DNA sequence: ATAGGGTTAG
């Protein structure tokens, strides 16, 4: 290990040579080798420009020869012949021609070499060279080096040369040299009206000194032309001051100056990131007005601008309208599709592209890879990789980061390691993206030590690397270690940013420590980082994950007090909480908020709305939203199926499942939990078996304890107690408390004392503190009139200090939630409620209602039992709803435990007598009463 | 220097 890490580090240092130095070495050595200019002098004497070469003295005319060259190879051959015949280029114009030809065929390295080694440089040649090579990737460091040498020898350059050198200084961040040149310009009396010099100065100041000074230079100019206008807009864009840039752009249009293509392309780029979409659209209009639509780069930028603002259709429109398209155009539209999640459509574009005779390049493939990676579709990502390799392209650092992202889950560790191997073999580890995704991959696959190793070996740890490890530790619950790492990074001089703090916040929040998470949010504020939407959403989602719903609502209110506005993620978390609390009316408010704020098209939000409506007992609204989602994500199907399960609408639930398969969506673990719940709640035994088998054989989903528990309950409740027993004996997982609980509840329904007592024995060991199990036994014994056993269970309950679960029901009226407890605090309007309830009961009795006292498990007289029956919390809540809620809206009551059969009957009567729909929710199931019938068909 | 691909927090 020790050795390995040493070589690793060694390779790093050689790879971390400054990129331009590397390029310098590379070009320089190859140029010397192939040109064989061993004796070429760097100290060439200036020669006066002579006349045409006399043809008599040469049997080959280099100028004619060069001009006749059709490709790079023949230029090189001519060059070599010249080198053999002459020691060096005596004549400037031959060198110039050589440079021109090299530049024409795109070999900047040779062009530069010829310039530096081949002929004497004076002002004129400098100027000529710089003009020709401006905007090309020539070797700027060498140019500056030569400039300084000549300047030191006393060569005096004119303004145009200085302007160009200033531009190079700006790009290379040579602050001192640039300032010296400015000084010289001032000394010799800088002419403010020379726009070439002044715009170069603005560019230099904007990049290397300060934006304000650049703007000041602009303000003090006596006259401005296209060049200076475009320059100042560009300077502001580069410095990120896009508001000022947009303002200047408007004034510029007003003043009649003409915008360059490049300025508008850059402007579009900025508009695609920020809230500058309106401006982006205006520029689109400007483009159309001025007839720029034939400019390919401009259209490509427009495609990207629209897609980054989520307007895929507009992107496509621009793409379709283009007369000429290059590879970048295709890549732009491909990335538009992948970034917005339509990777399959992007794959379709690949074929279209090939019919147009264009071959996808590495960028195209990487775009597709990243699309699948961000959706965690590892199989598809790997398929893309294979196609890419078949086409002769090898993955680069960009491909590797995507691939690593795709395989970042425990079951794909082997693949992750293989990719790590590839990275090492091909020396791709110098790239920070590769390193950080490696860290992240090892964290998500549960290999923390490996993540640490990659981190420790990093040559230069950037903030993302620190954050990756910190988030990994927080995610795993190693919060002390995460805090220690934060102090360490502070010691090493790296200031934690919002992501660092948020990682810690979310760590505490997901591990159920809301208070601690809030404290960290306060701490980050003290450290000068304001808690943002993500911080708040992390805490909110922590509350929701830990079923800490009340706190969640408080956190949401606090967030609003702090003036942080919610986004789609916040809303999704909030909706989950509201759904779990069945706060339908608050959920509806959030729904309208989504409509107002254009969040309704967000797939996560829509899914959360489906879930909220289903959980709050409004299945119809859930279904309406569900069918309105354009590209339904897997989760939304799962929620919808679960919704039908809760309402016991088996046929419809299975129909949705089939529709999902037809849509080509592959079901996952949760889908099958939902489908089996549908079967369980609707008593569909045959279907249950079918899907349980299908799940394993066809979809490779390994049964979880939830699936097994569904099967036990399905078989048991349907009366197949022996089959349920056999299932438990042969199931692939060790039966836990949920399994035995499900079995016991079935035994209770079918009054099978013998099997119930076996289950009860197991439960006393597995779950001795769950009052629900005790209640089931009390229920069973009392139904068999075995009051001694009832007493026995009650005693063991108090001996084990098991608290009887609180029983309550609630109803939401306007903004208030009214809770009715079985014991303890009475409702302030209790008198009025009982008055109405007794009135209802006497009406019901006239219609044939007989109180069902079987659910009173106390050994008391019948009339006493009837009285107890009237005190059931759901009856009180329903009655209160009838009193307070006028109109025709359904009465919605939520109960925290199961309904009793008498309340079920009463609800049916009320639905007829008061002509009102009633929705009664008991934990994970819903009863919907209408016209004297219940959606469950009385089977539960 | 103008268009296309990648990393961390919910």
UniProtKB/TrEMBL annotation:
InterPro entries: DYW_dom, E_motif, PPR_At4g14850-like_plant, PPR_rpt. Residues 848-940 form the DYW domain. One of its GO terms (biological process) is RNA modification. It holds the Pfam family E_motif. PPR repeats lie at residues 225-259, 295-325, 326-360, 361-395, 462-496, 497-531, 532-566, 633-667. Keywords: Repeat. One of its GO terms (molecular function) is RNA binding. Belongs to the PPR family. PCMP-H subfamily. NCBIfam families: PPR. This is Pentatricopeptide repeat. It comes from Arabidopsis suecica. The lineage of its organism: Eukaryota, Viridiplantae, Streptophyta, Embryophyta, Tracheophyta.
């Amino acid at each position: 290990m020790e050795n390995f890490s040493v070589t690793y580090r060694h390779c790093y240092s050689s790879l971390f040579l400054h990129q331009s130095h590397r390029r310098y070495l590379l070009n320089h050595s190859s140029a010397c080798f192939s040109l064989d200019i061993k004796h070429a002098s760097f100290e060439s004497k200036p020669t006066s420009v002579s006349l045409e070469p006399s043809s008599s003295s040469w049997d080959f005319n280099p100028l004619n020869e060069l001009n006749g060259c059709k490709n790079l190879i023949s230029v090189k051959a001519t060059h070599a012949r010249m080198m053999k015949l002459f020691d060096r280029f005596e004549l400037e114009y031959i060198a110039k021609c050589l440079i021109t030809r090299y530049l024409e065929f795109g070999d900047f390295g040779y062009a530069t070499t010829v310039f530096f080694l081949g002929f004497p440089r004076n002002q004129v040649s400098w100027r000529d060279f710089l003009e020709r090579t401006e905007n090309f990737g020539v070797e700027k460091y060498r140019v500056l080096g030569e400039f300084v040498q000549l300047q030191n020898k006393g060569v005096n350059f004119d303004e145009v040369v200085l302007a160009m050198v200033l531009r190079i200084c700006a790009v290379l961040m040579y602050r001192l040299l640039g300032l010296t040149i400015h000084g010289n310009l001032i000394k010799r009396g800088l002419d403010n009206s020379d726009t070439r010099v002044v715009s170069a100065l603005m560019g230099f100041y904007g990049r290397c000194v300060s934006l304000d000074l650049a703007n000041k230079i602009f303000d003090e100019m006596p006259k401005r032309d296209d060049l200076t206008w475009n320059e100042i807009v560009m300077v502001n864009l580069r410095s990120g001051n896009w508001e000022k840039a947009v303002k200047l752009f408007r004034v510029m249009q007003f003043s009649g100056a003409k915008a360059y293509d490049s300025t508008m392309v850059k402007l579009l780029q900025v508009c695609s990131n920020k809230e500058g979409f309106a401006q982006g659209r205006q520029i689109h209009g400007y483009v159309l007005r001025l007839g720029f639509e034939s400019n390919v780069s401009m259209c490509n930028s427009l495609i990207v601008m629209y897609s980054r603002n989520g307007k895929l259709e507009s992107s496509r429109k621009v793409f379709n309208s283009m007369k000429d398209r290059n590879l970048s155009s295709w890549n732009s539209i491909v990335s538009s599709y992948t970034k917005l999640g339509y990777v399959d459509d992007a794959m379709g574009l690949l074929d279209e592209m090939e019919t147009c005779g264009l071959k996808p390049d590495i960028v195209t493939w990487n775009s597709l890879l990243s699309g699948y990676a961000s959706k965690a579709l590892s199989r598809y990502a790997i398929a893309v990789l294979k196609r890419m390799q078949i086409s002769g392209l090898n993955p680069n650092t960009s491909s590797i980061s995507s691939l690593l992202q795709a395989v970042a889950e425990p079951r794909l560790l082997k693949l992750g390691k293989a990719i790590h191997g590839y990275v090492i073999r091909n020396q791709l580890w110098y790239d920070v993206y590769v390193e950080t995704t490696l860290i992240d991959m090892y964290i998500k696959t549960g290999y923390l030590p490996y993540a640490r190793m990659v981190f420790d070996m990093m040559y230069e740890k950037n903030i993302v690397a620190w954050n990756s490890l910190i988030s990994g530790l927080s995610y795993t619950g190693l919060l002390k270690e995460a805090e220690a790492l934060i102090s360490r990074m502070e010691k090493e001089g790296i200031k934690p940013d919002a992501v660092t703090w948020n990682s810690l916040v979310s760590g505490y929040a997901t591990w159920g420590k809301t208070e601690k998470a809030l404290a960290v949010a306060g701490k980050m504020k003290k450290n000068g980082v304001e808690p943002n939407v993500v911080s708040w959403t992390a805490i909110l989602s922590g509350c929701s994950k830990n079923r800490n719903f009340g706190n969640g609502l408080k956190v949401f209110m606090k967030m609003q007090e702090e003036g942080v506005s919610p986004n789609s993620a916040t809303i999704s978390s909030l909706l989950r909480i509201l759904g779990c609390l069945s706060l339908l009316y608050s959920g509806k408010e959030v729904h309208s908020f989504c409509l107002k704020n254009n969040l309704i098209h967000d797939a996560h939000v829509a899914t959360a709305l489906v879930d909220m409506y289903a959980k709050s007992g409004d299945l119809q609204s859930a279904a309406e939203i569900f069918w309105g989602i354009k590209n339904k994500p897997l989760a939304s199907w799962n929620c919808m199926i679960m919704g039908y399960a809760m309402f016991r609408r088996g046929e419809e639930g299975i129909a949705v499942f089939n529709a999902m398969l037809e849509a080509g969506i592959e079901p996952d673990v949760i889908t099958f939990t939902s489908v089996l719940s549908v079967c369980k709640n609707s008593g569909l035994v045959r279907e249950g078996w079918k899907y349980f088998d299908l799940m394993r054989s066809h979809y490779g989903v390994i049964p979880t304890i939830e699936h097994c528990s569904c099967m036990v309950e399905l078989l048991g409740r349907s009366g197949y107690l022996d089959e349920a027993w056999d299932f438990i004996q042969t199931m692939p997982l060790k039966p836990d408390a949920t399994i035995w609980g499900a079995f016991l509840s079935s035994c209770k329904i079918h009054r099978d004392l013998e099997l119930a007592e076996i289950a009860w024995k197991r439960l006393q060991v597995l779950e001795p503190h769950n009052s629900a199990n005790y209640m089931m036994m009390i229920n069973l014994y009392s139904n068999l009139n075995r009051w001694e056993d009832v007493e026995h269970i009650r005693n063991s309950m108090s001996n084990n200090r098991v608290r009887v679960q609180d029983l309550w029901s609630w109803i939401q009226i306007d903004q208030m939630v009214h809770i009715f407890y079985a014991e303890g605090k009475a409702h302030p309007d209790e008198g009025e409620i009982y008055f109405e309830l007794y009135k209802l009961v006497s009406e019901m009795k006239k219609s044939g209602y007989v109180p069902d006292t079987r659910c009173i498990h106390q050994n008391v007289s019948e009339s006493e039992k009837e009285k107890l029956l009237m005190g059931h919390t759901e009856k009180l809540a329903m009655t209160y709803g009838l009193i307070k809620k006028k109109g025709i809206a359904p009465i919605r009551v939520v109960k925290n435990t199961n309904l009793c059969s008498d309340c079920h009957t009463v609800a049916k009567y009320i639905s007829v007598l008061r002509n009102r729909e009633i929705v009664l929710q008991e934990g994970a199931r819903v009863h919907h009463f209408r016209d004297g019938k219940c959606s469950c068909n009385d089977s539960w």
